[in-house]
Every structure is written in structure tokens, then in C-alpha cells.
Automatic annotation (TrEMBL):
Gene: menC
Catalytic residues in the record: 134, 236
Recorded catalytic activity of this chain's protein: (1R,6R)-6-hydroxy-2-succinyl-cyclohexa-2,4-diene-1-carboxylate = 2-succinylbenzoate + H2O
Pfam families xrefs: MenC_N, MR_MLE_C
Protein name: o-succinylbenzoate synthase
Domain Mandelate racemase/muconate lactonizing enzyme C-terminal, chain residue ranges per copy: 115-210
Binding site for Mg(2+): 162, 191, 214
Organism field: Superficieibacter electus
Length: 321
């Protein structure tokens, strides 16, 4: 017998998490649990404010309708809303043992402010050392100095940078000027340096710093293509859609010789551990961008190994179905 349950949840964020110039005080989302006989599968549906087009309320209405159709008729058509399609497809994949358990819990540590805080984390990191630094929040010159400082301090470090389209071509040039030319190839990639793709391409061409597309993937006129200076695409499943669609994008990227990086949309620990499994399965050569749990004050239902945050159980969730 099929049974679908839906819960809504809210987790307080760490003070100071700012997304697209908006302070994110809480992270809000939904869980879906599907049962069929002895089998069980979970999924997380958590549109990210400022990034997802659908609101949580719209996603909730769609999810409840989907869950009822599945329970009554076994109907598993995918929603057109990316967050709903992702969460429902994860729950179905767990239910039918199609999402392998092995996970890649390495996460490129994220630095949004103080580079000194990153040094001990990197020193303790086993194997390949990769970190991600947000740039474009302060002066371009300061960003350049931070990048130099980290690359100088840790000779086997590679950096991923993310400007979230903050720079004009001039600012991007100022940044590049400050980065020691001998170290530019240790910048694995810089996500979306400029406001337009054309300016970002020109930046890669002029500076020799490789770029990656993130925001671009979700634009209507985007098509996957190998381009000079383009090294990677950042795939955020909650913003992309079903597991099937995520797999297709990864396959397309790999066929073009691009690195595909599975990345967080600030999911709860339940969603993040599923992304770690997805990464181990579909992008085993690439450290995923999943270091966002510490932006939250608690984990939910499933623990991220090694996290010291408290883990809230089902009684902290609000049942909706
Ligand atoms: O990609 C990562 O390593 C972590 C996730 C991350 O950086 C982001 C997640 C969600 C929204 C953004 O602020 C940011 C990004 O732009 O990639
Ligand atoms: Mg990005």
C-alpha cells in the first residue's frame, strides 16, 4: 500500500547569512516521505529565496497535490517546478533503491569573509585541497589579496571563486591584476565574474583565469557548449529539477569536457546528504560544493558526518499530510 507524508520545517540561520542582498534569517522547506510496503524514500523540497522562481507556498500546494496523486494512483509525473521535481524524484529514487548510499562528504570549504579562518581547515583537509571563496562582496583589490594570501600560504591549494556576477569588466580586471600571474592556473575556476556572459568570456580570454557558469544554467537562452576559457558548470539540483534532468546535464557537461560540480542550494542536512550521495554517484572525480550546513543552527533528521550541530527529529516538523 502506498502512503505519502509531507512536513514543513524551519531552521534558524546563523546571523549574517546574506543572499542576493537579502538577509536569510530562517531556511524553510518541506519533506516528503513515501512508503510502499516495507520500502521508504525521502525527499526535500526547499526553494531558495532569491534563486528559485517558485515560492515555498506555491511549491507546497504543488507537492501536496503530487503526493495525493501518487498515493491514490501511483502517478509519478514530474512537476514543472524544479524544487518539487527534485524532491519528489529523490524520494522515488530512495524508495526504489536507485540512489546509491555511498556519499562524498568532502566539501570544498566555503570562505565568505576571513581568510585566516580557512587556513586551519585547509591544513587539516586530507587529499586534494580545494576551497571556495566568495569574491565581489568587497573591493576587488581586497579579493585579489585574499586569493594571493591563500595560494601563497598553501602551495597545494586550488581555489574556486564565485563573484555571482558582481563585477564590471573594470572591477574584474582590477581583481585579476592583483593575483600573482604564476598562480592563476591554481584558480580552478571563477564562477560568473561579470554581469553578462559576454563580459565573463572576455575576462577569461584576457586574464587566462578559467570561468564557470552557475546562474547562466538557469537562463532560458543558455545552451551547454565548450567555449574557450570555460572549465566548469555548477549544478544546483534544487534549482534544476528532477534527478533525471540533473543526470542529463551532468552527462552533457562531461561529454563536452567540462567539469560538473554538484552544489548546494542551502538544503537542510537531509537534502545535503542526498546531494553528497548524488555527487559520489554522478561526479566521483569532483569535490562537490556542499559546505553550507554551518550557515544553519541545526540539522534535520539525517546527520552530516562530523557535524557538531544538534539534529532535530520528526517532532520538530509540522505535519501537513
Ligand atoms: O557552491 C558551493 O560551494 C556552495 C554553495 C554556494 O556557494 C551557493 C549556494 C547558494 C547560493 C549562493 O549564495 C552560492 C552560489 O552562488 O553558488
Ligand atoms: Mg555560484
Amino acid at each position: 500500500m502506498r502512503r505519502a507524508q509531507v512536513w514543513r520545517w524551519q531552521i534558524p540561520m546563523d546571523a549574517g547569512v546574506v543572499l542576493r542582498e537579502r538577509r536569510l534569517k530562517t531556511r524553510d522547506g518541506l519533506f516528503l516521505c513515501l512508503n510502499n510496503g516495507e520500502r521508504e524514500g525521502w525527499g526535500e523540497i526547499a526553494p531558495l529565496p532569491g534563486f528559485s522562481h517558485e515560492t515555498l507556498d506555491v511549491a507546497q500546494a504543488e507537492l501536496l497535490a503530487w503526493a495525493q496523486r501518487w498515493q491514490q494512483h501511483g502517478d509519478n509525473n514530474m512537476s514543472a517546478l524544479p524544487s518539487v521535481a527534485f524532491g519528489t524524484s529523490c524520494a522515488l529514487a530512495e524508495l526504489y533503491d536507485e540512489l546509491p548510499q555511498t556519499a562524498d562528504y568532502r566539501a570544498a570549504p566555503l570562505c565568505t569573509g576571513d581568510p585566516d579562518a580557512l587556513l586551519p581547515v585547509l591544513a587539516a583537509m586530507p587529499g586534494e585541497k580545494v576551497a571556495k571563496v566568495k569574491v565581489g562582496l568587497y573591493e576587488a583589490v581586497r579579493d585579489g589579496m585574499v586569493v594571493n594570501l591563500l595560494l601563497e600560504a598553501i602551495p597545494d591549494l586550488r581555489l574556486r571563486l564565485d563573484a555571482n556576477r558582481a563585477w564590471t569588466p573594470l572591477k574584474a580586471q582590477q581583481f585579476a591584476k592583483y593575483v600573482n600571474p604564476a598562480w592563476r592556473d591554481r584558480i580552478a575556476f571563477l564562477e560568473e565574474p561579470c554581469k553578462t556572459r559576454e563580459d565573463s568570456r572576455a575576462f577569461a580570454r584576457d586574464t587566462g583565469i578559467a570561468i564557470a557558469w552557475d546562474e547562466s544554467l538557469r537562463e532560458a537562452d543558455f545552451a551547454f557548449a565548450a567555449e574557450p576559457g570555460l572549465r566548469a558548470v555548477v549544478i544546483k539540483p534544487t534549482l534544476t529539477g528532477s534527478l533525471q534532468k540533473v543526470r542529463e546535464q551532468i552527462t552533457t557537461a562531461h561529454a563536452l569536457g567540462l567539469t560538473a560540480v554538484i552544489s548546494s542550494s542551502i538544503e537542510s542536512s537531509l537534502g545535503l546528504t542526498q546531494l553528497a550521495r548524488l555527487a559520489a554517484w554522478l561526479t566521483p572525480q569532483t569535490i562537490p560544493g556542499l559546505d553550507t550546513l554551518n550557515l544553519m543552527q541545526a540539522q534535520l533528521l539525517r546527520r552530516w558526518p562530523g557535524s557538531a550541530l544538534p539534529c532535530l527529529e520528526k517532532d520538530a516538523l509540522e505535519p501537513l499530510l
